[in-house]
Every structure is written in C-alpha cells, then in structure tokens.
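Q: What residues go here?
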C-alpha cells in the first residue's frame, strides 16, 4: 500500500495548487483574473500559490500590457505537466488499490 504514495507530489496537496494545475492543463494559458474567478480565490492567495508553483518550475508567469493595463498570464511548463500527470496517475492507482 505504501508504494501507492510513492509518486504523490506534495506540491499538489493543496486544493488551490491542484486547481491551478488542472485549469492550466486544459488551457494554453490563463490570465490572473480568470484563474482567480474560476477558483474563487483572493489576489493574495492566488499570488502566493502561483509563486510557489513557479519556483518549482511547474508554471511560468508572463506579464504584458493591454493598452496601459498590466495583464498577467500563467502557463504550465512541460515539467509541470509531467509532474501533474504523474501525481494524478498516482492518485488513480491508489484509489484502484483500495
């Protein structure tokens, strides 16, 4: 049974980070406000979780300007996608083994 937890990634234990990655897995990129609304988060909460995922190399942050307003986009990296898929597969294998 302990082997089932071997590929569980602690970075995705938070439901917020799990949600961020789930959204980014099915979208090329997502802007800050859309992600905030989809996950019902505050600015600070989203910022801290995206920063943590960015530091791990799982997502990248791109800042642009639309007119005079700054706009922040997030995108999952190849490494982030692979880590997330491995995590989801580990959860599925654990559920199947119980």
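A:
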């Amino acid at each position: 049974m302990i082997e089932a937890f071997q590929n569980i990634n602690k970075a995705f234990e938070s439901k917020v980070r799990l949600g961020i990655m789930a959204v980014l897995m099915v979208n090329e990129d997502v802007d800050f406000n859309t992600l905030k609304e989809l996950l019902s988060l505050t600015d600070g909460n989203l910022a801290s979780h995206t920063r943590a995922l960015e530091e791990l190399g799982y997502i990248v942050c791109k800042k642009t300007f639309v007119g005079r307003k700054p706009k922040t986009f997030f995108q999952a990296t190849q490494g982030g996608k692979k880590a997330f898929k491995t995590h989801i597969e580990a959860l599925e294998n654990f559920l199947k083994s119980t």
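A: Context that may help when evaluating the design: The longest strand covers residues 59-66. DSSP finds four helices and three strands in the chain.
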